[in-house]
Amino acid sequence: MSTRKIENGILLMITLVGAVIWIFPLYWAFVTSIRTENHVVSANAGLLPDMLHLNAYVESIFNTRLLTWYFNSIGTSLIITVVVIVSGMMCAYALSQMRFPGRRLLYGVVLASFMIPSQALVVTQFVLMNDLRLVNTWGGIILPQLIVPVVIIVYKQFFDAVPKEMREAVLLDGGGEYTLLLKVYMPLNWGITTALAIITFIMAWNQFFWPFLVITSENMMTIPVGITQVNDAFGVFYARLMAVALLAAAPVAIAYLVFQKKVTEAVMISSGVKG
User: Which of 76, 162, 249, 261 is deepest in the core (most CB within 10 A)?
Assistant: First the structure.
């Protein structure tokens, strides 16, 4: 057997082992969610699914505020995604194509803000939201998450790579900056826009720390925070907790699977722009 075949076999085995390790928590969560609560903590509970009970899913949907948490997560995540993409695109266009005093300094501030961890701003953000009376509101969840410097950086790199002749041709025809952005640059970067939108939506959907701090009412909680409320006075219901966790992860998993090709293409395009 050739050395190349041995190396490929070893790589295949390592990949399979890694895949099993990665998928096992998801598998175990699913198996737990389709069991009864008594069977979950029973000594007879094995690795294989030995029953199919959907009581945990029924309890999660009808006896918790899951649908309300879904609504809050979808609403806040969509607003964050739209505002971040639109504002990031316009800011990047200005930094890339327009000439004005302080442009380099402003881009330096954007790069510097990319290096600051969001946790370092939590105290000041919370004080600001409290002063604005936005605690326990969508505004309190949304506003601090609108700062996403990486979106501006990626867009600017793409705009910098667009040939200047296209810009000059539009300007000679009487077009303005909005015409350039909406009719020239935007149609060229739908792949990157799609990727950034999906990534931003997933990040906003999975955000836990900030919504956990700014929201105390169950009716205003998002999915990640709401999961922490799925308990009972007599202890934790593991099957129901796993069911809620899987239902919470389902939308972002489905979104990624549906747009996986677009994301891959956009990552390749953005990598080429960076190069």
Answer: 76
